[in-house]
Structures are given as structure tokens and as C-alpha cells.
Design goal:
Number of strands: 2
Distance between the termini: 71 Å
Structural class: mainly alpha
Radius of gyration: 24 Å
Shape: elongated
Strand content: 5-15%
Strand order of the largest sheet: 1-2
Order of helices and strands: EEHHHHHHHH
Helix content: 40-55%
Number of domains: 3
Oligomer: single chain
């Protein structure tokens, strides 16, 4: 099969991407794949950085590639390749691209494991309250007013307990 970009060399890089229900397939030679940003010369073929960076992400938009931390000058490209952030400011600067990268690796970016101590109880209570409020919104939209009233009462009860604990 010939490269779908240059049409001259044999395709040895095959890329499939599904977006909005549409399947996009590219069959590229290694030169065109490098030129289009799918692979780089500097990446080791089976390195951890390559696995998390190039394998799991689609080609980068130029604005993402140019993204740099103003405090330590770490580039997003470096973060994507190595998996390491340079400083505490990097968490702010790269939050959105890192979150989208993580979403491709794991099912959620929110911790759902065990929680301990007073902080764990507060987080669990906050999560329960958040879930009840979402259920309340759905019940109102679905015009299930009896269920909405029960949920409203549960929310008020939890908020009253929280007020007692804080006061």
C-alpha cells in the first residue's frame, strides 16, 4: 500500500481516529508521518514517553506545541514526551492538555478510591451532595416532582449537618 500523503513510498505507519462517529484512516510512509507530526526521530520506538505521548495523542496543534510554562520554561512537548512537569506553575499552565491526555489513558480524572480521616469524610459528603444535586436537576427536567422533593429534603438535611459540623 502506498503512502496516502505522498503516494510514492510504501506506507508503514497506519493511523485510525474516530471523532464524532467518523472514522479517519491514514496510511503514511515514515517520512510523511514525521513531517505531519505523528512520529519524531528523537523518540525511542518503545520508550515510556513515546507510549504515553505519541501513541495516545493525536498530532498536536501548533498552539499546544508552542505552549511553555512562564516560570520554568518547560514545554508541553517535553511534558507529553517525558510525563514530568517542571514546577508547580506547570500544573496550571498544562492543566487542560494534561487532563485530555489522562482521559485517554484512564477512565476518569477524579479519584474514586478509598478515603480516610476527617478530610475523607468531608470529600465523601461533598461528593454525595454533588450527586444528589445532579439527580435533583434531572428529576426536575423529567418532571418527577415527588422524587425531586425527596431529593431536595435529603440535600437540605446534608447541608444542615455540614453547617452543624462547621459551626
Amino acid at each position: 500500500m502506498l503512502c496516502s500523503n505522498c503516494g510514492v513510498k510504501d506506507a508503514n505507519f497506519h493511523y485510525k481516529h474516530i471523532s464524532g462517529g467518523q472514522l479517519t484512516e491514514l496510511h503514511l510512509c515514515s517520512d510523511c508521518a514525521k513531517e505531519l507530526g505523528y512520529i519524531k526521530d528523537s523518540d525511542a520506538p518503545f520508550g515510556l514517553g513515546s507510549l504515553f505521548g505519541d501513541f495516545l495523542s493525536s498530532p498536536k496543534a501548533p498552539s499546544q506545541t508552542a505552549l511553555r510554562c512562564p516560570q520554568c520554561s518547560t514545554s508541553f512537548d517535553s511534558v507529553r514526551r517525558t510525563g514530568f512537569l517542571g514546577c508547580d506553575k506547570c500544573y496550571e499552565v498544562f492543566s487542560k492538555p494534561v487532563e485530555s491526555m489522562l482521559a485517554k489513558i484512564q477512565p476518569s480524572t477524579v479519584h474514586k478510591g478509598k478515603l480516610s480521616g476527617a478530610d475523607g469524610k468531608k470529600i465523601a459528603r461533598d461528593n454525595t451532595l454533588k450527586n444528589l444535586k445532579e439527580e435533583l436537576k434531572r428529576a426536575i427536567i423529567d418532571e418527577k416532582y415527588e422524587q425531586a422533593a425527596v431529593l431536595r429534603d435529603k440535600i437540605k438535611e446534608l447541608e444542615a449537618k455540614e453547617g452543624e459540623n462547621n459551626g
